[in-house]
Amino acid sequence: MKRFALVALVAALLFSMVTSASATELKVRGNIDVYGIWSANLYDFDSDTSDSDNYSTTQRMRTYFDYVANENLKAVLGLEMDVVWGVGDSGDWGTDGNTDDPIELKHAYLAFTFPDTQISVQAGLQYVALPSVFGNPVFDDDAAAITVSAPINEMFAVTVGYTRGYDGSSSFTKEEGKGNDDKDMAFIAAPITLDGFSIAPYFGYAWIGENAGTLADADDDSTVWVLGANAELTMFDPLTFAADLIYGVGENDDYETKGWYGALAASYKMEMLTATLFTTYFSGADDDDDEDNYLPTLAEGWGLTPYIGGVRAFSGSFDTFSGINADMNLASWVVGLKLAKIQFIDKLTHDLTIAYAMGTNDEDATDADGDSYAFNEEDSAWEIYFVNKYMIYENLAAINELGYFAPDFDDRDEDDSYFATVGFQYKF
After folding, report:
1. Which residues contact 1 (CB under 8 A, 6 or more apart)?
2. What are phi and psi of 297, to 5 degrees?
3. How far apart are CA 235 and CA 320, in angstroms?
4. How far apart (Å, rounded) are the C-alpha atoms in residues 300 and 135?
5. Distance in angstroms (rounded) separating the CA atoms of residues 126 and 146
6. Which residues contact 196 (CB under 8 A, 6 or more apart)?
7. Which pLDDT tens digit goes with each residue over 121-156?
8. CA-CA to 212 of 20 to 30 Å: which in 86, 124, 186, 336?
9. pTM of this prediction?
10. Of residues 189, 169, 166, 136, the one with CA closest to residue 299
């Protein structure tokens, strides 16, 4: 029913636009990816156990409707449709089943600027991210939020925001076992832009009720705060630098974690390619029962490659590979080289990324359930990721991905993992 409700909503909005075309302009944008993937040992790194499936075809379509009244007022509706061919009623023969509901509401927000000012507001389901180089590891996700941005002068601006991540009860009447079940975050960012240099310091604070899933599964209210900055140096262009530095604390009466994250990237743009040397570092968990040294995260969006963080040329069901991905996000040291937009032939480009990762979790550390972390300071991994893109038309690309991941775990045997994709990506 949700699927038909969303379709009806879109139809109603489109119909309303016909009746008020003189007042509002409708703009449509988005993308669709369709690709096949072949893989081996994608998650378990075990050749002795046969994978249940080595091939799949996936597609994802995102469509955004911008209802523009004028340059100072608009509403945005974003829908996402994910289908794995042959899976569920929407992906089998017939493709019109409604039991698995492939249509998702992604964005729905109002954006406007106060009259005679430069103060802009976005309220509703939107993309919210703290500043970063490779995606922010603390908060970088779609969210129900309100954000307000205002330039102070030509060099200095301020953005403040509030987002709710969880509300266990939506009733204002007393409910047994309900209450203190919210998860919220507020933040402030103050970007400073100078000639050839910019820096965006920020502060975020989250408060989590005891019935909202607290830090480390404790039974007390939890708080998380982070202080960070993202900087970019462009005065030596074509040589540019970008950096992140974050420190964060998560705590309640039973548990505390204090950790930090740093990233540095140096890029040099040449005629035939752009070369980027990068490194990132997360502090890891230690073996103390009531204290850890990892950075607390709320809705992380960090990533470098398909295995290390889940960054892909395609978007789809297989964005993130490997069962150790979550631990690599939170506790790893990575160094790598990316050669981007390599071009020898017109319309054909290549991206090559080589990365080496080591764990930073203490080998004796355990999580809240008493389990050892899957990626610790005795573990390491190599990854090679190669992307070929041919532009068939201006907005239509044929894409091929090749990925190889070689883990080296200290306390268990493992086999290499690899995958290949072929497909199309249309941006409109």
Report:
1. 98
2. -125, 155
3. 35
4. 8
5. 9
6. 233, 234, 235, 236, 237
7. 999 999 999 999 999 999 999 999 999 999 999 999
8. 124
9. 0.88
10. 136
